[in-house]
Amino acid sequence: MAALTKRQQTEFEAAAFRRLVEHLRERSDVQNIDLMNLAGFCRNCLSNWYREAAEAEGVALSKDESREIVYGMPYEDWRNLHQNEASSKQKAAFELNKPHK
């Protein structure tokens, strides 16, 4: 593995994050419950992690602000445009796979 500087590592991680967020914005057909069932995280998880990272650095960021960063629009707007009611099969899978806190 190539030796990366801390700055390069941070820049590459940031670029990968931006690309993931862009991909998720383009794939609005993929529902959060599907992401949770298959990968164990969703857009909301990403926005929570972003907010937690900001807060760890002393930057106040609201839940709504961090969600808008990930969704590219206010969360309620995204929900109204793209979110479908979860099927009983999706809900059952989520109950089996949901994270334990």
Automatic annotation (TrEMBL):
SUPFAM superfamilies for this protein: SMc04008-like (SSF158757)
InterPro entries named in the record: SMc04008-like_domain, SMc04008-like_sf
| SMc04008-like domain mapped to chain residues | 30-95
Recorded hits in Gene3D superfamilies, A to Z, give: SMc04008-like
Q: What is this protein called?
A: SMc04008-like domain-containing protein
